[in-house]
Each structure stands twice: as structure tokens, then as C-alpha cells.
Amino acid sequence: MDSKKSKMNVLMLPWLAQGHITPFLELAKKLTHKNFHIYFCSTPINLISIKKRITDKYSLSIELVEIHLPSLPELPPHYHTTNGLPIHLNSTLKTAFEMASTSFSTILNTLSPDLVIYDVSPSWAQSTALSFNIPAVQLMITGATVVSFGQHMIKHCGSVEFPFPAIKLQGLHDTQFRHFVETVVKEYNDKQVASVNDQPSCNFMLYNTFRELEGKYIDYLPVIGEKKVVPVGPLVQGIDDDENEHSEIIQWLDNKGIRGSPSCSSCPFLPLSKGFSGQESGYLRRVTIAA
Q: To the nearest whole number, what is the mean pLDDT of the chain?
């Protein structure tokens, strides 16, 4: 307990998807090196997989905290994650997460963290934290380029060209992206909850990026938005910290011989799958082993 009091305690609440959990967890690991104690909050089914990725190095500094979603007949506890969730239940999971504010309030009241780092969902994370006089800051798991482009479109409604011509959409892609941005903004505004004590929100946001990659877009975001950008990336899962998780695939590759090499194509995020060759399945397009 004394060690926690000597540190700044941060509670992290990512959206219930691995693509959100991973950068949040990587930021948590970075913060532990700066004398922070982390309460990592998610559903029990997600914490099972997260626990495997917290090695002894972080076991004293990252504490897992369960948040319980309301019981819905069509959404049993093993579906309180996007991993393996049937597509038709995506909206149900979002709704259930939006209904978990009471559980989150109990967590804040019990742990009294110094700071909350939250995600794009749920909508009540910031307002609930502020109701306990706890500051809250949002972590954007995406880079600054797409967000600055989207905010520019929202602010100028197509009347002003984006100042960086390398980023440009035309025709159908432009129409589809505008519709996507408008839909996201409307859903976000509809779900926002006002703070009960009218405390101002944080004037900066954390972004999963770094200046060497997106410097000009990082600088442009405060120009068109209301918040400064603090780059904290890249937040990627390190093989050194997750050696046990990767050991099976490494052993499999070792068995392919000295001239064996995996060849991946058609998709920027392409996992390897045992025995998979020359087929398509969702976003996993093609993996071949050349011996």
C-alpha cells in the first residue's frame, strides 16, 4: 500500500477489443518505468488474455481490475469482448458497455486513482471520472493523420482544401469518408454525458504516434481542434515482454529449416497461421511457406 501511495495511480479503460487493449497495455508498461502504478480495467474475459501478457517485470506495477457489464440474455459473459463476438452482437456489446457506468463508479470510489485514461467508448468515462474530481485524458489509438483529416472535413465542410495534398480522397472514397465522419460525430455527440460538477475536460489528448512519423499532422490538430496532442507512440506489443506468447510460433518457424521463410502479402496486418497456405479468410489473405 505504501508503494502505491508514493506513486501516481492511473486507471486505464480501453474499449473491449484487442486492437484497443494492446496499445493501452503498452502505454501502461511505459508508464510503469516512470513510477506510475496502473489499474488496468476491462471485462473478466478480456483480463484472462491480458494476464498472460503481464510478465513478472510488470506484475507489481500493473493491477488488473474487473468491470462487469449488465447481464443480457443475448450477451453472456464470454461475449463481453469483440474477440470471437458474432458480428450481429457488436451493437449489443456497445450498448452493454454504455450500461456499465455504475460498475465504473464503484471502481473509482474504491480505488481513487489520480488519473483516468479512457478510450473512444464508453461515452461516460470522462464525465464519471470528473464527478469524482479525478482528471481524465483520452488516448487515441489511431495516428494523427486520419484524425486531422477528419476534423478538417468537419470544420470546413469541404470549403477549404486539406493543407497537405498528399492526403486526398476523390469520388466515391471521398463521399464514403464524409458519411463515415458525419455518422461518428453524430453518435459521439448523442452519447456525451455532461459532468455533474461542470469541471472542464482535459485540454490535451494522447495519441499513438510519434513526431518523426506524423509531426506536421500533430502540429495541425491543435489548429483545427481544441486540444493539444501529446504523442506517446509507437505503442506496439514487444516480443521481449511477450516471449511465452510467441514461443509456439517461433518453434514452428524453427522447424521449417534454415532456408524456410514466411511470405505474407495482400494485407498490412497479416497474422501467421499453422498449415495455412494459398487461401483467403476475412482479412487474412495469403500466407505461404517457401522451403
A: 83
